[in-house]
Design brief:
85 residues, mainly alpha, 2 helices, 2 strands, elongated
Amino acid sequence: MSADQEVKMNVIVTGNVTMDWILAAGWQYDPVTDKKNTKHADLVPWEDLSVTAQDKDRDFVYLIPNILSEAGFTIVKLRPMKAER
């Protein structure tokens, strides 16, 4: 898997997990975002987001290593398990 493919996969997974957390917290999809009434237009699968929203998710994923580093953590890339080779 290329570095670009890996980043895209991480962005999609992160965006979809975040969407699941927000939905579990009681937010609902609505084409018009209304934060007061916990409704948001971006509660859709990553592929269905606008380019602007996808870029926002991508920017966040690129910042994760810096955020974790500032908190004292280190990201270590693991070797694939035998089943993945």
